[in-house]
Amino acid sequence: MLDVQKIEATYNELKELLGWSIDKRIILSLAGYYAALDKEIDKKRFKEISEIIKKRVSMFSPLRSQLQPLFTATLDVSGLEPEEAVDLLLVKVEELKKNSFKMNNYSYLAALMMSDEKEQWDYEISRAKDLMAAMKVHHRFLTASDDYPYAMFLGKLEGDTAVRAETMNRYYEELKNHKFYPGNELQWMSQVLTYTNLHFDPEAVSRVVVIRDGMKSVKIKVSTPQYPIIGFMAALKLNESELMDIVESYRALTSMKLFSWYKESALPIAFGLSLKSSKNVYETAAISMATSLEMLIQAQQAMMISSIAATSIASSSNSN
Questions:
Q1: Domain ranges in the chain?
Q2: In whole numbers, what is the pLDDT of the chain averaged over residues?
Q3: What is the DSSP string of the chain?
Q4: Confidence of residue 300 (pLDDT cuts 50, 70, 90)
C-alpha cells in the first residue's frame, strides 16, 4: 500500500475512533504520525488507553484536552501494556511537578520525551532545567513552559548546556536577519539546529534559508508553525534528493481530497515519511516532536477560532 493510501485508511480509522469533536488537522497529523512510524492502529488497544487516561486524570487535565488523541497515540506505539504506559506517563509528570515544572500541555509533552528508565530521570530533569536556565540568560521573557519539550529532548544530548543555549541565541539572531519572524517558533527552530552540533555553524543558517526558499519556489507555503520542521531538515543535512522526496510526498498528499483545506498539515507529514526508514531513535523522536508541536499549535488555534465563533454567535443572538 502506498504511504498516501495508508494515511487515508489510517485517517478513516481514527475518525471512526475519535468522532467529530476532534479537529480534522489533528487527526490528519496523527494519521501521518502512524504512517511515519510504520505502525498500524489497534482500535481495541487505542480505546483501552483512552479510557484508562479518562479514569486516571481529572476533567481539567491536559490529558483531557483536544490533544488527548496525541498522548493516546504516543502511548499506543510505545509497546507497553496500556495501564503500564499510562501510569508511567503520569509518574513522569509527577516528577516534573516535583521539580517545579508548570503543569500544562508542554510539560506533558516533555514527559513523553523522558526515558522509561526511572534511574535516568534525575539526570534528564536536571539537564532540562539547566538548559532552560541557560536559555533564559539570552531570552528572559521568550523562554517559558512552551520550551519544556525541546529542553528535555536536547538536554539529554552531550555537551555544556550554557554553550548550547548560546548557540541557540546566535541562530535566533542570524535567522531574524533572513526574514524569519521572531517568536516562539523561531526559538524552537534555533533549538532544533543544535540537535546535531552543539556549536554554531554558519552553514546551518544557509541550509535553513535554502530549504525555505526552495520550498517557496515550488509553491509550498512555509508558515511559522513549520519552522521547527525546516530546522530539523537543516540539522539533519538532508540532501537535494531527500528534500525532493519530501516535496513529492507533499504534492501527493495535497492532491488528496483529505488535504483540500489543510495543505499546511501536509509538510510535517511529508517530512515524517521521508525519515521513515531511519533507524536512529532520536531522529524518530524528532519526527514525533516536530509533529507534536505542530498539532499543539493547530489545536490551540482551532480552540481559539471555535471560541471566537461561539462568542460571535452568542453576541449576534443577544443583539436580535
A1: 3-315
A2: 87
A3: --HHHHHHHHHHHHHHHHTTSS-HHHHHHHHHHHHHTT----HHHHHHHHHHHHHHS-TTSGGGSTTHHHHHHHHHTT-S-HHHHHHHHHHHHHHHHHTT---SHHHHHHHHHS-S-GGGHHHHHHHHHHHHHHHHHH-TTT-SGGGHHHHHHHHTSSS-HHHHHHHHHHHHHHHHTTTPPPSHHHHHHHHHTTSS-SS--HHHHHHHHHHHHHHHHTT----GGGHHHHHHHHHTT--HHHHHHHHHHHHHHHTSGGGTT-GGGHHHHHHHHHTTT---HHHHHHHHHHHHHHHHHHHHHHHHHHHHHHHHHHHHHHH-
A4: low
